[in-house]
Amino acid sequence: MVEAGQIALTVVMGLLLFGVATFLTRLEDWRSYTPLAGGGYVGEQTGQAHSEKPAGIVRWLTTVDHKDIGMLYGLYGIVAFAWGGIAVLLMRAELAAPAENIIGANFYNALLTTHGITMLFLFGTPILAAFGNYFIPLLIGADDMAFPRINAIAFWLLPPAAVLIWAGFPLASLTDSIDPAQTAWTMYTPLSVEQTNPGVDLMLLGLHLSGVSATMGAINFIATIFTERGEEVGWENLDIFSWTMITQSGLILFSFPLLGSALVMLLLDRNFGTMFFAAEGGGPILWQHLFWFFGHPEVYILVLPPMGLVSLILPRFAGRKLFGFKFVVYSTLAIGVLSFGVWAHHMFATGIDPRIRASFMAVSLAIAVPSAVKTFNWITTMWNGKLRLTAPMLFCIGFVQNFIIGGVTGVFLASIPVDLVLHDTYYVVGHFHFIVMGAIAVAGFAGIYYWFPLYTGRMYQRTLAKWHFWLTMIGSNVTFIAMLLLGYGGMPRRYATYVFSNPELVSMFTNLHIIATVGAFIMGFGQLIFVYNIVTSWLEGPHVESGDPWDLEDTGMKTKEWAWFERKRETALTDGGEEVAADGGETVEDE
């Protein structure tokens, strides 16, 4: 009965996706509408004029404006961040004691799965797309993204993806046959094939949708940066954030379709009896090769744009240009190329040919060099600079510190003898989270605070922003350093309990888990302050008094998006403070 239900569910989802694709192909004009100066739209291919965008909820459901879509991505990313954060706090609460106490092993495994997939696919990639959608056209002097309708479609694939990925939790309380997926985010076979749970199929379909969304967005970013740049923006003076986004988009274009193919094979194994990953067919190791060929470029897909954010923001508050701009660009491109040659360092313990292991170790060590180049350039940019310790600058510095720890611990894991000892321990968890939360999310906070005056016209509460910074930094370092120490002690990851025969070992693990749990809750409290600050400041914060709220013009560091913001303000003031259309029909309120 369960297998029949799985097949029926798969057929229904396939028909639904086919129907959506058929509907989309019937749209008459895939090329976007270019905004008119007066606020209306004209189709580039049809020449048909359109009125201003509607107000209210209809605007957000139908918009093709890159700024609106950037805001939608940002809201989506923050909601996903909250979901993943709540999941990890429940897991940490369970791990504060050795035995099974609060949520149970099965629910722990479900939270473990949803936390990893949510943070990587539903938070990490969309929050970076939020910055890219909003600011890349402004930074390169473009009217909009190259394909705004495709841009909108790419976003609207994400909400159903999240529903499918998370659906197992509400459905578990409504049915007896569906539970949340418990495969962990890597979905290793044969476990992911043998679990007769339709919730796994829902999760795989949701992942597939998120991958299609990311690929569509990547094509759009590449086309935009190549073809929509202003006449004065050449490759030699393209901003560093756009360089990292175009490199990230190239990585997505070559890696996400492979993940999609592997997910289709896994769905076929689960529902139609194929043997792509069965021992008699390709074998479970085939899944690891296919997954990690995507999975390690995915790390750089997530970390390159934050590097670009830090490289853009940090010099503004150091009072000097980014040191070695060309080398930062070259190192970005080098990371993009080398990232496809390191996937098997996740598989050193699988018994692959020692000669192959050695080659992957060499490339894994080599990829640390361009990352180190960036780190030295950031530090040198701050050296003898006139530092202003605003919230964006503090988060940039926090990014550099966490990235150094995360990078150095990764170098150890790239060494075969060390990796064989530390593989599948909490050391890997600590290293990975220093990069994902300690660096990627921290850089995202820097970007949110830096551009907050631009997209709201208001200023956040500075004291609360600094509290957010310190709680995030203290909480993340306490948590992830405790994880590194747990790994050195031999604590295996992905375990809901750790009741061992050695009482001294259990005592040591318990103390470190308590420390990690305290750190996680400190970090979580910091995020509550962040949400409170953003919401209240958006609604009631003081209006910025000029188009240059960070005084960037004084040091010659003012960039194109702030020039656009200043023109937007001047347009509103010239019009007497009434709402007027500006840049794609967006309305500007009285400042």
Concise synopsis of the structure shown:
Pfam families: COX1 (PF00115). With about 600 residues, the chain is mainly α.
Description:
With 591 residues, the chain is an all-alpha fold. It contains 20 helices and 5 strands. The chain has helices at residues 2-25, 56-62, 66-95, 105-140, 148-156, 158-166, 168-174, 191-194, 198-227, 240-272, 284-318, 325-338, 354-366, 368-382, 391-413, 416-422, 426-456, 462-489, 503-540, 560-574; strands at 33-35, 41-43, 49-50, 580-582, 586-588. It has a 3-stranded antiparallel sheet with strand order 1-2-3, with no helix packed on it. A two-stranded antiparallel sheet has the order 4-5. Helix 4 (105-140) packs parallel to helix 9, helix 4 packs across helix 17 (426-456) and helix 10 (240-272) runs parallel beside helix 12 (325-338). The chain is globular, with a radius of gyration of 24 Å. The termini are far apart. Residues 1-6, 27-50 and 575-591 have low confidence and may be disordered.
Give the helix/strand layout:
Layout: H1 2-25, E1 33-35, E2 41-43, E3 49-50, H2 56-62, H3 66-95, H4 105-140, H5 148-156, H6 158-166, H7 168-174, H8 191-194, H9 198-227, H10 240-272, H11 284-318, H12 325-338, H13 354-366, H14 368-382, H15 391-413, H16 416-422, H17 426-456, H18 462-489, H19 503-540, H20 560-574, E4 580-582, E5 586-588
Helix pairs in contact: 3-4, 3-5, 3-19, 4-6, 4-9, 4-11, 4-17, 5-9, 6-9, 9-10, 10-11, 10-12, 11-12, 11-14, 11-15, 11-17, 12-14, 14-15, 15-17, 15-18, 17-18, 18-19
Protein name: Cbb3-type cytochrome c oxidase subunit I
Keywords: Electron transport, Heme, Iron, Membrane, Metal-binding, Respiratory chain, Transmembrane, Transmembrane helix, Transport
Domain Cytochrome oxidase subunit I profile: 60-550
